[in-house]
Specification:
The chain has about 140 residues and is of the alpha+beta class. The chain has one domain: Jelly Rolls (Sandwich). The protein is built from three helices and eight strands, in the order E-E-H-E-E-H-H-E-E-E-E. A hairpin with a 2-residue loop joins strand 5 and strand 6. The longest helix has 14 residues.
């Protein structure tokens, strides 16, 4: 059994962004030389997310509108967490969108559905953050 670990680093230019990281994960898979197994991709920061969905800009806009309805950024004083930082909404958005994804590896490829892509979701950006890619298999 092989085990491979790599960190991907991101720094967004906006507070909230969705970045398609499928190709970066595929590069990790090639580097690992695992043909059959599983890849775990997870955000290593409590205000960021990794999730699978369609790479369609309208949908990304819908995420933004929906998440802002559920956990609006402002007013900052609506959250008990806010004090030292003003990012309580980012913590809540991460809870909704999830921490990680696990994808099967079959014949050396990510076994994703026809429209599925892997995304890094940033909810409190403009600073450097990392994503862990862990691949296990043969």
């Amino acid at each position: 059994m092989k085990s491979f670990r790599k960190e991907l680093w991101f720094q967004t230019s906006r507070r909230r962004e969705y970045i398609n990281i499928t190709h970066e994960v595929e590069k990790c898979l090639i580097e690992s030389s695992v043909r059959e197994g599983i890849v775990l991709v997870n955000a290593m920061h409590i205000t960021a997310s990794v999730f699978i969905n369609d790479d369609e800009m309208g949908l990304h806009s819908d995420f933004e509108v929906w998440l802002e309805k559920l956990a609006p950024e402002k007013p900052y004083n609506q959250y008990r967490h806010n004090g030292y930082e003003d990012n309580a909404d980012a913590h809540l958005k991460r809870q909704i969108m999830g921490r990680e994804v696990t994808v099967a590896i079959t014949e050396g490829k990510l076994d994703l559905g026809p429209w599925e892509q892997i995304f890094y979701g940033e909810f409190d950006g403009m600073r450097r953050k990392r994503v862990l890619v862990k691949i296990i298999g043969e």
